Amino acid sequence: MSAVIAGSGALWRYASSAGDSGKAPASWPAASALVRSATGKTLVMFAHPQCPCTQASLGELALLMARSGSGLDAYVVFLEPDGVSDEWTHTSRVEEAACIPGVTVFFDKNGREARVFGAATSGQTDLYDAGGRLLFSGGITAARGHSGDNAGRDAIVEWASTGAARRTCTPVFGCALADAPRQRATLNP
Fold it and tell me: 10 Å Cβ neighbour count for 131?
C-alpha cells in the first residue's frame, strides 16, 4: 500500500510540475517567419511532436478555437531538430493539429522560431493582438497531459471574445523543447 501511495505521489508531483515558461517577446518578433494577422489576434503554440503531454494541449486548443470565433488565427509550431527522421516529426499530433479549424501547422527547423519567440516548453502558447502586442503567454492545460478547465484556455477565450482578460500568463506543462534530440528514443509518437 505504501508503494502505491508513494508512486501516486511521485506521478502527481511530475504531472503538476511546470516546465520553463520561457520569455515571450512583448512585441511580435520581426525575425519570425510566421505571418501575424493584421486584422485579428494571432496565437502561436509551440509543440514537441514526441511529447505525450502535447495531445492534451491540442485538445484544449481545439476547444479554445471553437469558443473563440473567427477573429483568431493560430499556428502550432512543431519542433523539427536536425538528424531526426520524418517519422519522429510527423506524428499523429501533427495530424490532430492540422484538423483544428483556423490552425496552421508549421515545422520549426532546429527550433529557430522557438528561440525567436523565447519558447522553452512544449505547450507554450502566446497570443498577440493585430498590432503585435503580447496579450498572453503560458500553457493551456492545468497539468502535464491533463485536459479540462484551466486558466490559460479561459484567458485566451476572454481575450478573443471581449478584448480583455484577468490573466496574462499561466504555467506551461510539457517536455522541454531543448531536450528534443535526447528524448527521441524515450518518448512515443
Answer: 9
